[in-house]
Design goal:
alpha/beta, Rossmann fold, 13 strands, 13 helices, UDP:flavonoid glycosyltransferase YjiC, YdhE family, 36% helix
Length: 338
């Protein structure tokens, strides 16, 4: 079996999942080859991490367009050999244009109403989430398996991670793990980061706030707001797993970084995701099932938010909640089953 693996951009969550799953698939019995093709900001992720890829040359804002379908079709037609399977991480139009069996991986069904035919033509659909949070449309229910989020389990401990990242051994370390900043979530990121910086005024002087953006991006996002001396802008980085492990608590906006922190038992504070959003539903679901996740309401004062962060930072790391978590084997068996 040869696998053509497609990865969406619009941030780095899909690319990070691909980077975890694709190499694992290449080691499975009967898999002769796994190649990666990427769109939008996923290209930047693979270039940064050194994982080989083909650039589909589709910008994030067009990844569900006719142009994206054309670029995907042309790429897949250039691939030689029989016994091919397409695995597409939320490039949903792939199932319409590929000439091979297709496994579609999605985090949600937010794109279903705009293009149900793309979901309908996929051979298998893996929901990398929980059906309690993301109900499966009835028309495709027979094709869908909810496998849970696919996230990396970090083996090293906090002292090791801090030593590698040159973070203070005994200081309070908090990482604002909001994912890659991109235009469609500009307002969301700005409000969350502004709230965190307001709360951080109450942090001890020797505490460290890690922000995985460049200082220039933060200044552009916040309109020139001065960063505190104990904030570290580490730029876009492929080492977020390690920064999570090094932290006393991780601040998220409810996306895939939340799943990673919770899966690894790291105390987590979710900063008021938009009401009704997928991120908000996941945060509410997890908050009711694990003791190391705190969810804000968006109405807290700076002092109240700091108190929530400080309380989380002094919470012991715990075992992850007893939930279904996806693995590369789930993708492998789905591909084999086509």
């Amino acid at each position: 079996m040869r696998i053509d693996y497609l990865s969406r951009g619009t941030g780095w969550a899909h690319a990070a999942r691909t980077a975890l799953v694709a190499p694992a698939l290449a080691r499975r019995p009967g898999v002769e080859e796994v190649t990666i093709a990427a769109s939008g900001s996923a290209v930047d992720y693979f270039a940064m991490t050194g994982l080989p890829y083909h650039d589909l040359r589709v910008p994030d804002e067009l990844d569900h367009s006719g142009y994206a379908a054309y670029r995907i079709r042309e790429h897949l037609r250039s691939r030689d050999g029989a016994d091919r399977v397409v695995v597409s991480d939320e490039l949903c139009l792939a199932s319409l244009v590929c000439e091979a069996p297709c496994v579609l991986i999605v985090c949600s069904f937010r794109h279903y109403d705009a293009g149900p035919e793309a979901f309908g033509t996929a051979d298998r659909i893996l929901l990398a989430g929980w059906s309690e949070v993301e109900p499966v449309p009835e028309a495709i229910r027979s094709k869908v398996t909810a496998i849970g989020p696919i996230v990396r389990v970090v083996g090293e401990d906090r002292p090791t991670a801090r030593r590698v990242l040159d973070l203070p051994k005994d200081a309070l370390v908090v990482t604002a793990s909001f994912g890659l900043f991109y235009p469609t979530k500009r307002d969301y990121f700005r409000d969350a980061l502004s709230a965190v910086l307001g709360a951080w005024r109450h942090a001890p002087a020797d505490a460290v706030l890690v922000i995985p953006l460049t200082s220039a991006t933060v200044r552009e996002l916040l309109g020139g707001v001065a960063l505190p001396d104990n904030a570290r802008c580490v730029g876009p980085t492929g080492r977020m797993d390690r920064y999570h492990r090094a932290s006393n608590t991780v601040l998220t906006v409810g996306g895939s970084t939340t799943s990673h922190a919770v899966r690894n038992g790291i105390p987590t504070v979710v900063i008021n995701p938009p009401a009704g959003s997928v991120e908000s539903r996941y945060a509410a679901f997890l908050a009711g099932r694990c003791d190391h996740l705190t969810r804000t309401e968006g109405t807290e004062s700076a002092q109240d938010l700091w108190d929530m962060i400080d309380h989380s930072a002094h919470t012991a790391e715990l075992a992850p909640p007893d939930l279904r978590w996806g693995t590369a084997d789930d993708v492998y068996h789905a591909a084999r089953g086509t």
